[in-house]
Every structure is written in structure tokens, then in C-alpha cells.
Design goal:
Length: 161
Amino acid sequence: MNSSDNKLAKTNGLCLSVKNEKRSDYLEWDEYFMAMTFLELRRGAPGHNNNAAIILNQRKIIISMANSCLDTNKHELHTSHAEYKALQKIQEGNVMYTTSFPCDKCAEAIAQAGIKEIVFYQNNTDDNIAKELCDKYGITYRQFNTKKKRIELDFSQFCDD
């Protein structure tokens, strides 16, 4: 078997095929973190105002995740801003991924928490106050951009041998 052949690697009970080239389904960092944000969204209450946010530290480690469903003992339909909830769980972070651009109140809380960059999926508002606040406090923001329209996770690709 030469270095370009497939190999089988076992890590913590998972069997994975190891290749020496880049995978066809490889996720760039932005794609990975936005996918994680949408997975967090799936844990929230259903409805048109649901949102999710994650916060990373400088080493690309997720330090906080939140969705717009209030944390209660029951899965109720009460909502809160996901960005604000994620900020309550950290002391200071670097990058926030969010499913939609923050409102002005969340942008203010983001600035106070020391977030330096926001990556958002969509902008649902024409309100420029949040963008002005980000500009004022030196927070960069950009819309998530990818050629991928679908990310799939097939659990059957792992084995328990």
C-alpha cells in the first residue's frame, strides 16, 4: 500500500477511511460554523422569529451556543434573542456566527461583550442602527457566503468495530 492508497484509521471506536487528498465533502471553517449555528437553531422553538448564534474564541473553539427559545423546564414557545443569550454565557469572545443579522439591542450587547466579528446568514431588517453600532465599535460583519447549498451528515459512514 503506497501513501496515496486509502487506509483505515480507528479513533475512539470510530472507523474512518483516511486519504491523502482533500475530501470532496470537506467543510471550510465558515461552512462548518454556520452549519453548527443551524443545528443549534433546530433545538429551538418552531416559528418565524427563531434564531441561533454561536461564539468562538480566537482558537476557533465554540465557547457559547444559544437559540431563541428560553431555557425552561418545558419546551415552551417563549423566545429570547439568541445573540443575547449566547453573550450571557461568555466573558469575551472573538467571532459570532448567527442565522440573521443582529438587531440594534443585540448589536449593543455584542459590542459590550468584546465580539470583534459577526458572520450572519441573512439580513432580515432594513434597520441600519445595528450596523452603525458595529461600525462605531469596530466590529466587522459579513454575510456568510458558500457555494454549498446542502451539508449532509451520514451516520452510517462510521462503524463501531
